[in-house]
Amino acid sequence: MKKPKLYITRRVPEEVIAPYREYFTVDMWHKEEEPVPREILLREVSDSQAIICMLSDKMDKEVFGTGKTLQVVANLAVGYDNIDLKEAAKARVVVTNTPGVLTESTADLGFALLLASARRIVEANQYIKADKWKNWSPYLLAGNDVHGKTIGIVGMGRIGEAIARRAKGFGMDILYHNRSRKEEAEKRIGATYVSFTKLLEKADFVISVVPATEETKHMFNLEAFRKMKQTAVFVNISRGSVVDESALLEAIEAKEVAAVGLDVFAEEPINSEHPLLNKTNVVCLPHIGSASVETRTKMLQLCLDNVKSVHQGKGAITEVKQ
Q1: Tell me: the pLDDT tens digits for 258-275?
Q2: Where is the D-isomer specific 2-hydroxyacid dehydrogenase catalytic domain (predicted)?
Q3: Is 268 one of the annotated active-site residues of the chain?
Q4: CATH architecture of the domain formed by 103-284
């Protein structure tokens, strides 16, 4: 019996794929850092039963129309705004994602970005590299304390809760805003539910962990930034679309926020000409929230397990529902 074809849109380690080759004929794009060209994706999807794709791969009407034999699309991410779920449903294609396995690693990165922004870590490193460190002075590259301050978490899902646990270890007061109140989470981590406006006004650190939806698009606009303390640090590890970047740039230039940490952007990837990169009080990262070897391997294994489970008639493990 002919094995179903699985196509992977990036080169991934063979040792992770090897155990699954008994179930599938596996093919993949040969480059790790460059996305598969659109014409090759369409050619490969035309006779594939399964696709493992990345956030940068647009899975739309054209893809689902071309993939007549396609049964499952496994997205190597929690977010799935790159996939047209309505078109997938019309084509009767199961869509899966990777929730849970990347929670702690993404929270680590979020808190690291918060610390780096507050304590001017990247700026200080560049200061030495530029051979500017000639003397010690009391306020040389002085940043903001994190311990004992107030953190405002916008979006209290798995990652939001994980960030709150880390904040608790720093003795921080924890405020959060979410679409719905989560009283059990409040008891577990000692967080306080507040309105979005109150969170912006009270928090010393504001961190966005919300999904990309029509409701969250540009929720961090000029009005939001002006409500923050001028000493506040803003961190975004969710999706670039939740921030109005021109408004953020204006707020930075007007000194309406003290520092910013960004792992995501409205259009990715960005290049060295992006205006936010020119600001010394902005730390920019290339969307590496879950980028630890252990976590990315678990994500890939979950994608493979989803594909295997669907083709064995057991249903998806982590199916995305409309």
Answers
A1: 999 999 999 999 999 999
A2: 8-320
A3: yes
A4: 3-Layer(aba) Sandwich (3.40)
